[in-house]
Every structure is written in C-alpha cells, then in structure tokens.
Amino acid sequence: MRVLYFAWLRERIGVPVEDIETSAETIEDLVLELSNRTPRYKAAFSDLSAVRCALDQNLVSFDTPLGDAREVAFFPPMTGG
Amino acid sequence: MGVIIQKSAFDVGDQINAFSQNHTKMGAIATFTGIVRDNDNETLKAMEIEHYPGMAEKAISEIVQTAMKRWSLGDALVIHRHGTLEPGEVIMMVATAAIHRKDAFEAAEFLMDYLKSRAPFWKKEITKEAVTWVPSKQNDEDALDRW
Fold first, then answer.
1. Which residues of B touch A (CB under 8 A)?
2. Per-residue pLDDT tens over the stretch B78-95
3. What domains lie within chain B, and their CATH numbers?
4. What range does the domain containing A17 cover?
5. A11-57 pLDDT, tens digit each
C-alpha cells in the first residue's frame, strides 16, 4: 500500500511517500503501526485532532477500514483558496 | 466546467474574457480572485503552496459538480496554483456563469467556502522572521454550515 504525507507531516516524518506492507484493518490501526516505527512517526501522529486522512483520494475518518484501497494519505487540515 | 491545477501564473482578465465568450446565453458572470497577501509588517517573502496531485483535481471537481446541481449554472471554472508565489501574485480564481446574478454569486461563494477547507492544498509562509505552515481557521470550517 502506498502512504503519502503532506505539509508538516511530510516534514516531520521525512519522506513524501512510501510503499508499505501492512495487515492493519483500519486507518487507525495503520497509524498505530506507523507510530511504533520511530520517534519521528510517533511525533507526527501524537495529536490526531490535527491530522486528516484520505483513502484513495477521498477524505475519510480514521475508523475507516483499509479494504482494497491502494493509497492512504495523511495531512493537516486543508487551507486551499 | 473546468478545473485547472497549475504551477504557472495566469492572466485573470484573459480567463474571464474567454469564459464569458463561451456563454452568450448567460446574463451573469461572477468571479473571485485570490491573491497572496503580505502581512501587516510587510515581511512576507513568499508563500509555498503544496497540493495533493490527483486528489486536488478530484476534490475540486466534486465541489464544482455539487454547485452545478444546486444552482442554475451554465458553467463554472476553478484555477488553483501551486508552487512558490510572491506577495501580490494570483493564487486562484473562481468563475461562475448563470442566467441571473443570484445563482452566479451564491455558487461562487459556495465554491470558495468549500475550496478553503476541502481542497487538498497547504500554505507555508516564508517571512523575514520565520517559516510557518498557515493553520486552518475555525471560521472556514464554520462557513460550511450555512450551506
């Protein structure tokens, strides 16, 4: 599965995109798995109220099952316009 | 409808003229242009706009389609830039075409409100003092409630 990070999450984790193997069922589970990797991930995901996520480019909540999705993205609240 | 995400600058006047000429049966064209604004101390050097390629086009297209269903619109156009911009540069524009002005104005406002907090773009301000990510505003989130 492809994982993308944007804005300060990308900076804190240190990579814009990575391909990972995961058995996580939901996005929440995946966040827990990633947080346990290194302190950088843990810091990036320490306050989930400041993080939004998208599954296959649709904005979703953290309890969404990963299912057959190919792409998950993490980013701060959007500031377009 | 048109959704364009691009790095390069564009001429707002040219875009509005081209958009208007395509819609001779529409009596109202409403447009909004967003500009990189310097801060009160005039220390902003640049604004870096990051986006999520693919999702940006998809999310904005969905917002435009919602507007086209909700209001009586002949057409709608959104152009949004990414990359490094300087104060005074155009970031984005919205144009709506309708038979009457109420639909054009309301749909343009709806598009702007949704683009603010539902289009995957992030702004980083580079000032003489610091480099900071622009935080989202609760006002922008609250603005969606009126629709």
1. 34, 50, 52, 54-55, 58-59, 80, 91-92, 112, 115-124, 133-136, 140-141
2. 999 999 999 999 999 999
3. 2-146 (3.90.1170.40)
4. 2-75
5. 999 999 999 999 999 999 999 999 999 999 999 999 999 999 999 99
Compare all CA atoms of chain B with the CA of A8 and give the residue at the minimum distance.
Answer: B133
Q: Which residues contact B79 (CB under 8 A, 6 or more apart)?
A: B2, B4, B6, B10, B15, B92, B93
* Complex ipTM: 0.95
Q: Report yes or no: A30 and A65 within 8 Å, Cβ to Cβ.
A: no
**A8 assigned to some structural domain:** yes
Tokens 């539902």 label which residue? B118
> Do the domain assignments include residue A49?
yes
Residues B39, B102 contacting (CB under 8 angstroms): no
CATH of the domain at A17: 3.10.20.30
Contact yes or no for B52 and A54 at CB 8 A: yes
User: Residue A68: inside a domain, yes or no?
Assistant: yes
Q: Give me the residue label for tokens 């979703």.
A: A60
Interface contact B122-A57, CB threshold 8 A = no
